[in-house]
Amino acid sequence: MIDPAFPAASWFLWVAPILFAVVYALPIFLTPLGWARWFTWDTPARDDLAVYFGRCTGALGLALCAACLHAAPHPAANRALFDVIAIAGGLLVIVHIRGAIEKRQPFIETVEIGLYAVLTGVAIWLRP
C-alpha cells in the first residue's frame, strides 16, 4: 500500500529495503565470507570472528529492512525511521571514506560512498 499523502516516501520504504536486503543484508547474514569474496575482498578460508561480525551486521540490516517495510504504508507515522536511515547512511559514508583513505577496501566499496550518500540525502529529502 502506498500512502497517498506521501507516495515518494512510501515507495522509498518499499523499494530501498528490498534492494538492500537482496544485495547486502541477506547475503551477509547467510554467508558473510561468500558475500565478501563476491565483492572482491581477500578472505581467509576460515575466520570465525569475521563470520560472526558479518552475520551480526546482516542481522541489523535485515531488522532495518523489516522496519522500513512495516513503515512503508504510513511513512508520516514513522518519521524517526527516516532519521535512522539518514544516520546509518551517513555513518556508512564515513566508514567507506576511511577505508578508501587507508586503501583497505576493494574499489567497489569506495564506489559505495556515493550510494550511501545518495541514500542519506534521499532519506532526509523524503522525510514526511
Overview of this structure, please?
Helix 1 packs across helix 2 and helix 1 packs antiparallel against helix 3. The protein has one domain. The protein is mainly α and 128 residues long. The radius of gyration is 16 Å and the shape is globular. The model has no long low-confidence stretch (mean pLDDT 96). Helix content is 77%, strand content 0%.
Question: What features would you highlight for this structure?
Answer:
single chain; 128 residues
Sum this structure up briefly:
Helix content is 77%, strand content 0%. It is built from 5 helices and no strands. It has helices spanning 7-30, 32-38, 48-71, 79-101, 107-126.
SSE order and pairing:
Layout: H1 7-30, H2 32-38, H3 48-71, H4 79-101, H5 107-126
Counted beta strands: 0
The structural domain count equals: 1
Mean pLDDT: 96
Count of DSSP helices?
Answer: 5
Question: Gyration radius, to the nearest Å?
Answer: 16 Å
Order of helices and strands: HHHHH
The SS-based structural class is mainly alpha
Largest sheet at a glance? Answer: none
Strand residue percentage:
under 5%
Alpha-carbon distance between the two ends: 16 Å
Anisotropy-based shape:
globular
Query: Uncertain spans, ≥5 residues at pLDDT below 50?
Result: none
Percent of residues in helices: over 70%
